[in-house]
Amino acid sequence: MGMAASQARYLALTARKSNIEYEGQQINQSRVALSSQSANLFSKMLGMSVPTAPDTSSYTTLQYSWTDGANTSTMEKYTQLASDSDGYNYVVTSYHNENVYTGSRKKLSSPQVQGTKTDHYAYDTTSTDENKSTTVSKAWTNTDGTYGMETTDGATAIYKAVTAAEEAQVRALNAGNGVVDATATVDLTNADTLAGFKKVGTTDTSGINNVIKLYALDETTTPKASAVKSGTTSFYTNGSGGYITNADHTAAAAGTTLTQGKGLESPAPQKYYTDGTTYVTKSDLDSAVTTYNSNVANNTKNINTINKITPGNEATYSNYTAVGNSTLTELTASDMTNADTKAEINQIVKDMKTSTNGDTTSAENLAACFTTDASGNTTYTGGIYKFTQNGTTYYTTKKDLATSAGSALASNNVDNQQQKLSYYTASYVSQKIEDTQKALIQTDGSGRFSTLKLENDSTSYSLSTATVTDTAAYNDAMNEYYYNQKIYDKTVADINAKTEIIQSQDKELELRLEQLNTEQSALQNEMESVKKVVDKHVELGFKTFGG
Length: 547
Description:
Blueprint: H1 3-47, E1 60-67, E2 72-80, E3 90-108, E4 113-118, E5 121-122, E6 131-141, E7 147-151, E8 156-161, H2 164-176, H3 191-195, E9 198-199, H4 205-214, H5 225-230, E10 235-237, E11 243-245, H6 246-253, E12 272-274, E13 279-281, H7 282-298, E14 304-309, E15 312-313, E16 316-323, E17 326-327, E18 329-330, H8 339-354, H9 360-367, E19 370-372, E20 378-380, E21 384-389, E22 392-397, H10 398-405, E23 421-443, E24 449-454, E25 460-462, E26 464-469, H11 471-546
Antiparallel strand pairs: 1-2, 1-26, 2-3, 3-23, 4-16, 5-15, 6-7, 6-14, 7-8, 8-12, 9-10, 10-11, 12-13, 16-17, 18-21, 19-20, 21-22, 23-24, 24-25
Helix pairs in contact: 1-11, 8-9
């Protein structure tokens, strides 16, 4: 090997040795960091508290009780008095269970209230929900006598002539708005009756609407509806649904004899058509068809409106006969003279008003069955019903029955009543009765309480003792222990897993460090050999040139 080659090799070995030393330093630093992480995990484990299972003795207390012959009372808590001039040394709170006569309300999920339903249909001419003006874009007649109608929103409906039953509903609607049926009459030859008619003012919106409906007025009739609204054409009303024209009123006032009922009879009943929900007059439908056909003929797009009546039924219920298969019987004044019945009803009424188990609505429904005079005397006026289930008599009210009966999804359907029926009973219920009094307590030789004498009782009672464990509290503590133990085990497992990973990483670094040490030793040996070669060349060079 030449001088230059040896020197180059020596330099390369030196560089490689420097790299190995640098890598070794990095590995040592990494191992120090891993060692720090391992120490932190170990410190965390040392700082953890091992969960301890609860001791039953911590939840066990000594309980004192005594018996007065009627009830067994238990001492709940006691507080020692610093001094008391009456000779009592403690304030004691005790309790016992006692059967208390209590009125209660229950609810029947499927009431199936049976009774008579009376429909009362009505609608408000000013309501946008019950009397809607529908914009019509197309109307036509069908060969079967029905009408088709399409609104501007694209909805299509077929209107059929109403049945006799539906016609009766429309008449009921009209009657609810003051429209007089054709059978209604009044004798206008009687001056007193005539004097009872007052002019319908322009501010009487309801009266004007009734006149317009009664005489089927619109802008094509004489008089026009707008003339009535503005007061140009006058009508008179007796205030109870009767209306007459101004001409009839003037003639009667002048002494002209009018036939009985003239001016009060409704015009010929309008023909109504229905889509099953709303009602439309035949005249409105004919007008819509005429307008549409005219639009088609003239190639115009004029549209018109139709007044659709949506009835609302404020039904009433009466003659209740049964709840499910249990017969209903209304209590009479005579029934209320029975001592047991009166006591039960009075207790129910009392507890619905004042008890924490009471109910405001129930209290009001029960109160509606009684009247109270100025002297405070209460009289039963009716409205409480009784029925029997499983040998027990229960009570309910007329208002409760009406609420359930009126909640049926289908008309008068007892199987679909959605509102639960409130019903009532009175019975003896075990209740916790608490009492707090001063007491004189004496102890035995072991320090336990032995006798007790209460402030409001002249008898001195012997105290019985029993060891009582609060099982619920102990179980809660045990569940908390199990929970904490699971957390502890999980934390320890996590620390061990992380420690194993750190140890594995450290082992890999240690092996790599050993490899570098071996490689460094080999490099050191080779460097020494090369250095000898270089030194030999230097020595020969000096000898050659030094002579």
